[in-house]
Specification:
TIM Barrel; magnesium; single chain; alpha/beta; metal ion binding; 3-stranded antiparallel beta sheet
């Protein structure tokens, strides 16, 4: 048993925020608190948590989680839960490393040997999906995801939906499974139409067909299509997911381990989902620490079915210097994809070795990543 001696955070490209915790005996753990486009807000919360939790017993992960969540009075939300996620993931890593076992051993052991994964194609304005899908196939992927559309008006021409159907048909013709991410870009008048148009072509799932702030609309869409509906990157606690379980409107949940309070809360959300016969496919277009944490859940949770990974994602490669999942770890081979799967990570802690020298050097010059946006032909703001 040893108290937390030091909490540090590092802003690194392309848009990630890493957290390092050191206890009084020198044991170390790494977490990820990335909240895309809101880095400074999370850093401010981490500053407060540093004051609050330095000296707190590092082994008591659940006690720290409850203290951070319940004593804040204002609970949940993306900023608080992302900062808490960074601490939580780092503490699980620290504890498992100290014991010389993978995190999944502390979660009850593994329920599978390999974890199915998928990668992104198409970018924010989806294009050239055939060539990109073939590239992913060559990398070992059998499943992928792409944005459904560019920006779409509240009530737009039905013709803007045609390209989404053609892209899905193109990818399916290559023998790959494909999920289609609506990204909350469509409002109900258009989302209803697109869900119906895609259905005959059997997408793996449709993601965020509407924003989660419209649970009644998602329930309506669920009744209109047999395609599985996925949701959850903008939900941050088990209480946020609760109404979607209760109205039976989602088939796949996608909590983000860096947004939802870390390993501790993601595991609880997964257990809730299992009681409603809902699959788990964690959202993770983020860095190697977040991915490694997700893979610990993937190894140990029965209803985990597929894992997003950001290998070669446009957000990574578009940044000057070219950063990717391998850039800040010394054992990137643990993320190797074969036959659409990644092997369960065997190493201690999260199963990755962070290149601390590279992290510290990159953090000296990294600026906050800014949220992009779309503006329609009329000059009005559209959902991004």
């Amino acid at each position: 048993m040893a108290p937390i001696a030091k909490i540090e955070y590092f802003r690194v490209p392309p848009r990630w925020l890493f957290v390092k915790i050191t206890d009084s005996l020198g044991n170390v753990g790494w977490g990820e608190a990335t909240l895309e486009g809101h880095t400074q807000s999370v850093e401010g919360t981490l500053d407060a948590y540093t004051t609050r939790f330095t000296g707190f017993e590092a082994d008591n992960i659940e006690a720290l989680w409850q203290d951070a969540y319940r004593k804040s009075f204002y609970r949940g939300g993306p900023v608080f839960m992302s900062a808490l996620a960074g601490l939580d993931i780092a503490l699980w890593d620290l504890k498992a490393r100290k014991l010389g076992v993978p995190v999944w051993q502390l979660l009850g052991g593994k329920v599978r040997d390999r974890i199915k994964v998928y990668a992104w194609i198409g970018g924010d304005r989806p294009a050239d999906v055939s060539a990109q899908a073939l590239e992913r196939k060559a990398q070992g992927f059998t499943a992928l995801k792409m944005n459904a559309t560019e920006d779409v008006g509240w009530l737009d021409s039905p013709s803007v939906l045609t390209s989404a159907v053609e892209r899905l048909k193109t990818v399916k013709a290559l023998g790959m499974d494909a999920a289609v991410d609506f990204h909350g870009r469509l409002h109900k008048p258009m989302a209803k139409q697109l869900a119906k148009l895609l259905e005959p072509h059997a997408p793996l799932f449709i993601e965020e067909p509407l924003l989660s702030e419209h649970p009644e609309g998602i329930a309506q869409l669920s009744a209109l299509t047999t395609t599985p509906i996925a949701l959850g990157e903008r939900l941050y606690t088990r209480w946020d997911f609760k109404p979607f379980f209760e109205n039976r409107s989602v088939d796949v949940i996608q909590p983000d381990i860096s947004h939802c309070g870390g390993i501790s809360e993601l595991r609880r959300i997964a257990a809730m989902a299992e009681t409603y016969d809902v699959a788990l496919a964690p959202h993770c277009p983020l860095g190697p620490i977040a991915l490694a944490a997700c893979l610990q859940i993937g190894a140990s949770v029965a209803n985990h079915q597929i894992q997003e990974m950001s290998l070669g994602m446009h957000y990574n490669t578009d940044v000057e210097g070219g950063y990717d999942l391998h850039s800040f770890v010394t054992n990137p081979e643990v993320f190797s994809v074969r036959d659409g799967h990644v092997n369960v990570l065997p190493g201690p802690g999260l199963g990755i070795e962070v290149n601390e020298e590279a992290v510290r050097e990159a953090s000296k010059i990294t600026k906050p990543w800014e949220i992009k946006g779309f503006v329609g032909f009329d000059g009005g703001l559209r959902e991004w």
